[in-house]
Amino acid sequence: MKGKRRGHRTTLVVAFALIAGLGATVPATAETPYPFRDPSLSVHQRVDDLVGRLTLPEKVSLLHQYEPAIPRLGIQPFRTGTEALHGVAWLGKATVFPQAIGLASTWDPALMEQVGSAVGDEARGFQQERPDGWGLNLWAPVVNLLRDPRWGRNEEGYSEDPELTGALSTAYGEGLTGGDPDHLKTAPTLKHYLANNNEYQRTTTSSDLRPRVAKEYDEAAFEPAIAADAATGVMSSYNLVNGRPNTVNPDLNDLVRSWTSRDLLNVTDAFAPGNLPGDQRYYPTLAEGDAAALKAGIDSFTDNSADAGPTVAAVNAALQQGLLKEKDIDTAVSHILSIRVRLGEFDPGGGKYGSIDRSVIDSPAHRKLARKAAAEGTVLLKNSGQLPLRKADKDVAVVGPLADTLYTDWYSGTLPYAVTPAEGIAAKLGTDVTSSEGVDRIALRNTATGKYVTAGTGDAGTPLKETADTGTPTQFDAFDWGSGIVTLRSAANGKYVGYNWSTFVNDQAQPNGWYVQQQFKLEQQDDGTYLLRYAGYETEEPWWAGPVYLGPVDADGTLGLVAKDQAAHYTKDVVRSGTAEAVAAVKGKDTAVVVIGSNPSINGREAHDRTDMGLAPSQESLVKAVKAANPHTVVIVENSYPTTLGALQQETPALLWTSHAGQETGNALADVLYGDVNPSGRLTQTWYRSTADLPSILDYDIIKSDRTYQYFKGRPLYPFGYGLSYTTFRYGDLKRVNGGYEVRVTNTGTRPGDEVVQLYTHQRTSRDKQPLKQLKAFQRVSLKPGETRTVRLKLTPKDLAHWDVTRSKWVVESGMYDVLAGSSSTDVRARATWQVHGETIPPRDLSKPTRAENFDDYSGTRLADESKERGTAVSASSAGAWLKFADARLKAGGFSARVAGTAAGTIEIRLGSPTGTLAGTAHFSGTSSAYDYTTVTGELSGGAKGRTDVYLVLSEGMRISTFSLR
Predict the structure, then answer these.
(1) Are 642 and 709 in contact (CB under 8 A)?
(2) pTM given for the model
(3) Domain 9-46+76-267+340-359 belongs to what topology?
(4) In terms of C-beta density within 10 A (0-12 exposed, 13-18 middle, 19 or more buried), how is residue 500 classed?
(5) pLDDT tens per residue across span 395-418
(6) Element containing residue 434 per DSSP (H, E)
(7) Cys-Cys with 884: which of 607, 659, 857, 940 at CB 3.0–4.6 Å?
(8) Count of alpha carbons within 13 angstroms of residue 304, beta-carbon side
(9) If you write DSSP's letter for every residue of 243-309 in order, what string do you get?
(10) Does the domain made of 378-437+578-693 have the CATH classification 3.40.1280.10?
């Protein structure tokens, strides 16, 4: 590990002890002149001094998320983990910026840094009152790559591309830190290391990362911010990588800490330590698991909420059992205290940023910045001349389920105010607009009793019951979110119906909570009646696997959960057609704006992946009906991920996309719709036409499965980097200059606008499969009509390197490279070729020990943990599994391999193909466990000579770590 100096402790402690001994006894309070409180000393000197003053129990107490006060040294409590993904969350009203995916769609690092700085200021503003949950260690940004758009947490990430993700996360992090790594405004933590892009069984699924995918893709997203000191650590993710839980991933020490010379504070995800002896069954006890995590590079345990007891007991048990030594505790505590020192906690007045107060929270400047970010992140997907709208055309209708509301996600802050799309357009025009949500208002009548489901009229609602009433309390607005899921908003008080673990009450402002209790399904029966099913958080089977249907459970008709055969049968009476109301609202209007999209608590969220990438059917029908009633229709899709828009994309004359963009959503959309802001957002993910374009969400090998724009060979709905403008841009020739390429870009339209110039490369020939295109640089440039600017983009031979599995190093191959500049990954406006003088990868030398994971191709295998501590092996998951090692130079001799597994089997060495010439066989009789390795040997035939592709064909259940052909 870099940057770990501990040589000053003894001198400093002795010196200050002598000074203290010359005068009266000084109480151990915050005013005591301990060296750790002296800002003139180095961070390492201060940390060394403080660690030296702590007792072992005190040090152990600091390893939990909730670090207690140490009164004898005047040290206050400290808590890791304030959520700050797109604003400070969970602490009260604060500026809510667009979701992370929306911020990223700006392709604007300068803006990202400004937003990060604003969020950092607001986190500091909260510190003055130290509310519950306060802390300056921020858990943001999320840099997991968006390789699969079905990921439930897609809204939290930036991009499917590591170059873009690295640039944006570095910018956001620099804003959060303040740019001075020794004097931190806040201490951002990157989430979630590593390869965490599925929520399905997220604590037990393993992401297979062969070395090229790990190095060129997943790790590449995390390194830039750490290397730039724009982040102060990583959070380990719930999932396993290559069979090993990330909570004990040795990368945390071996790799992540190698990216910087400064101390990092690495934390676990919430409750992840308990998963090691829990559902992962990786270690038998928490003591063994926590010890392994500390040795792997975890410093702080996020476990059991605020109860540090189990963690302290486990660490103490590990010390008693010899699993840990005090120096292991010292190392982790030093990392923690380094961050606290750099945050200014022990400086007079709280250090450089200690004077920031609550006045910064939701300040006018931050409101303006939120509006700018929301506008810049809006992407114009289609425009057949409909946009920008004319302000003179004031007779406007704004319809759709998201027309006059704003939704927040799990990691959003509390909105200080909300400007809806309808409100934003009305403010822009200076007049009222007609509005309709376009959802059906229904009543549910029990066919057996004739009674109606009835809600309470007060603000707090009441438990739903069946009554003879026929008025407003029996009416509900049924919002369709797709996949059969609806939410029911009571017409009686405007509140959503939710389950409270006993009854169903109309008391919720929005669908929300960890268990989203406001979800239902109306299941039509053969006789035309409906069963009302509680869909809860899990849309198929609830976690308790109990009754899921609604029916009366008390004599007074109160509704509760019952078994299906006891469920009430209801007629669904449509009191008001949402589509008909929307059509009436738009007829004869100058413009119809339809706002559709997702609910971030329902359509995909933490612990819940999407299974359907399409719009809710009723929303698509609504757009078609509105378009038929008014040809001057503009559609806004407000959601958190790529959507398969189907025929809508073809039929709609103008189409905009925005994320759930925070408090200024409506103003920002109005700015774009009416041309005060020229749309300049760009997509950071490929928008596929169908889920059929995607392999399993659990397949992490983007190279073999042709994932993301880098390898996808199909025709996307919208490509990576795509976004239209109200003006046009012309590109000149692409020219090689010192350190990169330059291209002259001219605004050839009549409006000022921003162009995002994107530079891609393609390697024409290579030993290895290469991306079709790969983003290497980008720059956002603002141009007035007729203005030309020269855009210079950095590109050096080093930037062309890929991971050579034959020698486990980065390599730049000699050859011809295409260099492409344009407005998206498919809209190339200028190109050049570059003859690069690098090296040629030589034939494999398999006479040296070769790690099995360094294969070129495979079938029927999984990557597995070689041992619980470190290393990757290959496991044969089916009979006839094979590994390919291309272009090997052979000479006849022997074969040996390190293998493990409880079942006997063979390794066949075949030449040319998995069924090619059999050159040798090694027999394996089995070992005591998958971690008990033995060496097996065999002889090679005389024909095993020259250059050829070598295949190892493995018996099912066998693990192989290394081998050699000698």
Answers:
(1) no
(2) 0.95
(3) TIM Barrel (3.20.20)
(4) exposed
(5) 999 999 999 999 999 999 999 999
(6) strand 434-436
(7) 857
(8) 15
(9) TEEGGG-THHHHTGGGG-SS----EEPTTHHHHTTTTT--SSSHHHHHHHHHHHT--BB--STT--H
(10) no
